[in-house]
Write a structure and sequence with these properties.
By secondary structure, this protein is mainly α. The longest helix is centred in the C-terminal third of the chain and has 35 residues. This is Membrane protein. Pfam families: DUF347.
């Protein structure tokens, strides 16, 4: 069944909220698991349930609702982080292996999505099937970004600040390739989307980890709160702008 487009325009606001959401995914998971003492398993159950509820509401919606869409993104960022953490911390799977697992899972989603829809475009998401592929791909990018980011920043000893610069550099190079060298727009989008996850995770770790561990020592509570408030402010702005745009279109049609 066709619906109105269910996803936002790809603007600077999209990317700002995306990076903020990925950082909240990193700091939020740590806050619930460690600070609130829910543990990795308890946090996984709670956040997975909240994510599934929000996703079902999103799937039932017939149009793009900024608050609902970005709530799902924040929750999927936490769940994606927890998937990686459970494999690494609870099951002892190496970060290199989990990176390969999630990269393979993402590739499978892309292949199935393309075979079914003949496109991987994120500009028009107007059927439930296409939206399911969209969210499956996003979940895989968050888990992949978590594993790959931790692998580079921690296991390879690159550090959070330098890792953030590396990931930001990859995103900048992707934009330049798209803007000036005609890199395919869909490919450019997904490369940037994948690398904003480790960028956000590195920023989150940089802000929250103790100074002795190369962090700034702000803690998970302060960092999560600041970023969530910023996300809420931007979503309110986008919601108002969307309403004004709808009112203008309605007025023009009459």
């Amino acid at each position: 069944m066709k619906m109105l487009n269910k996803v936002p325009e790809i603007t600077i606001f999209f990317w700002i909220i995306k990076v903020l959401a990925t950082t909240v995914g990193e700091t939020g998971a740590d806050f619930l698991s460690t600070t609130m003492k829910l543990g990795l398993v308890g946090t996984s159950y709670v956040m997975s349930a909240l994510f599934l509820i929000a996703l079902l509401v999103q799937l039932k919606s017939q149009r793009y609702i900024p608050a609902l869409y970005w709530l799902v993104v924040v929750l999927v960022s936490v769940v994606g982080t927890l998937l990686s953490d459970n494999l690494v911390d609870r099951m002892g799977v190496s970060l290199a292996t989990t990176s390969i697992i999630f990269a393979s899972a993402l590739l499978v989603v892309f292949v199935l999505w393309y075979l079914s829809e003949k496109t991987l475009s994120v500009h028009i998401i107007e059927t439930t099937k296409r939206e399911l592929f969209y969210w499956a791909a996003i979940l895989c990018t968050f888990s992949l970004g978590t594993s790959a980011g931790d692998l580079i920043a921690e296991r390879l000893g690159v550090g959070y600040a330098l890792s953030a610069l590396i990931f930001a550099g990859v995103i900048a190079a992707t934009y330049i390739a798209y803007r000036f060298f005609k890199l395919n727009a869909i490919l450019a989008f997904w490369i940037a989307y994948i690398f904003t996850r480790p960028l956000g995770a590195s920023l989150g770790d940089l802000l929250t980890q103790p100074v002795k561990e190369s962090g700034l020592g702000l803690g998970t509570v302060a960092t999560s709160s600041i970023f969530l408030i910023t996300i809420i402010g931007l979503v309110i702005y986008l919601t108002r702008r969307q309403k004004q745009k709808s009112m203008s279109l309605n007025a023009a049609s009459h």
